[in-house]
Amino acid sequence: MTNQLDRAATWPVLTDATRAALREILVHGVLSRAEIARALGLSRASLTRAVRTLQEHGFVIEVGTDVRGATGRPSELLRTSEGVWEFLGVKLTQDRLYAAVTDLAGRVLALHEETLRDPSPDALVQQVAEVTERLRAASPAISSLGVSVPGDVVTRDGVTVVEVSQFLGWRDVPLSSMLEARTGLTTFTVNDVDALTAKEHWIGAGAGVGSMALVTVGAGVGFGLVTNGEVSEGAHGRFGRVGHLPVYGGGPDCGVGHEGCVSGYLPSSIIARNAGHDDTSYGAVVDLARAGDEAALEAFRDAGTALGVLLSTVVTLVDPESIVLTGDGLPVYDIARAEVDAAFRKGLRPYEPAVTVVVQPFEFSEWARAAAVLAVRRLLRF
Ligand SMILES: [Zn+2]
What we know:
By secondary structure, the protein is of the alpha/beta class. The chain has helices spanning 2-6, 16-28, 33-40, 44-56, 121-138, 175-183, 192-203, 268-274, 282-290, 294-318, 331-335, 337-347, 364-380; strands at 30-32, 60-66, 75-80, 86-92, 96-103, 108-115, 142-149, 152-156, 159-165, 170-173, 186-191, 212-217, 221-227, 230-231, 322-326, 356-359. It contains 13 helices and 16 strands. The radius of gyration is 23 Å and the shape is globular. The structure holds zinc ion.
C-alpha cells in the first residue's frame, strides 16, 4: 500500500509558459507544436523548453505529426498522457458524499458514493480520508484533491475556509488544510455551484461560449456565471447567492426573516413542506404532483413562478448567451413549466427576446467530476 501511494507524483513548479502550453493542449485535446507556439506567441526555443518539461513530468505525449501548417513543415502533435496524473473530486451534500477520479482532461475514471456518517468537520474529514485511501489503492496516480461544498468558501490570510455551510451546519472550517494534514494530498475547497460552473465552462454546456449563466435547483438554489470568457467570482466568496431574492412580498417566511423570497418556494424540501408533507418527502411529492394531486401541484406552481422570476432576474442583470438549468430539483421545470415560462416572460421587458434555457440532465457524479476538474484548474491557474 505504502509503495503504491508513493507512486503519486507531486505537482512540479511550472513556468508560466509551460503552464500555458499545458492549458492549450488540455482545452483543445490535440495540438501541434506550431499551433501552441502561435496561440501563445512563444519563440521556438521557449516552446521546446516548455514541451520538454511537460514530457519529462509525464503531462503530454507525442501522437504523430501534422503537416498542415503554413510552412508545410511537419509539426509534432501533442496530447495529454493517461495514467500519470489523476485527480480526486469529492462533492459533499447534507447527507451524502460523491467521489470521482478523473485524468488531467477531466475524463471520469472511477465513481463512488456513500452516505455521510456524520457531517461534523472532524468526522467528515475522517470519512473523506478513508474514501481517498480506498480510491488511491486503485488509482495510485491521484495527486490532488478537489472538494466542493454547499456553502461560502473564502480565503483569509492565505487559508481557505468554509465560512458558512447551512447544509453541513458549519462555521469557519479550514477544510483544505484539515484534509491535507490527513491525506497528504494538495487539497482545494470551493463552493459546489462555482465548481460546476467552471467545469461546464471548460468541458460542458458552456464550452467555448463567452457568457453563460448556470442555475441549479434542488436542496438549495444556485447561480454561477461565465462572462467575457471567465468564471465570475465575488469579493467575499458569496457570488450568486440568489436563494433569497424576493419573489412576492408577503409570502411564507424562508427561515431567515424574509417573506416571499426564492427560498420560501423553490428548494425541494420547501416544495414538500408547502404541499403539506414532511420536508424529507420530495420524491413522493413529485409523484403526487404528476398524479394530479392539487396540493402538490400548487406547491410546484409556486416554485415554478419563483424559478421564472429568478430566470428573468438573471437575464436582466447579466444578459447571458444561454442559461444552463440543472440540479436534482429539475422536476419543477417539467411539472410547472407553464408557470416558469409565464413568470420568466413577465419579468422581461415586452420587446425582449427570450434567452434559451438549456436543461442539463442532473447527475451528482458531474458535481464530483467538477470538483476534480477544479483541482486541475487551480494547479494550472485557470
Ligand atoms: Zn429568504
